[in-house]
Amino acid sequence: MALKQTCSILAVTAGLASSLASAAQAEDLNALIWCDHADPELLQPFEEAHDVRVNVKEYEGTAAGLTLLEQSRPGDWDVMVIDAVDVGRAVERGLLAPLPADQLSTDSYFPEAVLADHTTIDGTTYAVTEKFGYNTIAYNKAAVDPADMASLDALWSGKYDGRIAIYDYYLPVLGLVGLEAGIKTADLDAAALETIRAPLMKLGAASKQVSDVVGSQTALATGEVDVLIGGGEWLTAVLNAENPDLDWTIPEEGGLLWAQSLAIVEGTEKPELALEFIKYITSPEGQARLATSSCYWGMPANKAAGDVLTDEQKAILRWDDQPDYLSRAQLYPVPDADTDAAMQDLWTDMLQN
Amino acid sequence: MSIERQEKRQGAALVAPALLWTLGFFVIPFAAMVMMSLAHLEGREIVQGHDLGNYLRIFTDPSLRRGIFVSLEITAVVTVVSVLLAWPLAWIIATRVPARWRRMALLLAVLPFWTSYVVRSYSWALVLGEKGVVMNALVGLGLLAEPVQIMATRSATIIGFVHFFVMLLTLTIYSNLIQLSPNYARAAEDLGASKWQVIRLVILPLTLPGVMTGAFLTFVLCIGDYITPQILGGNNELTLPQLIMLQLGRRGDFPMASALSVVLMVIVTLAYAACARWLKMERV
Question: Which residues fall in a coiled-coil region (chain B) (predicted)?
Answer without folding.
Answer: none
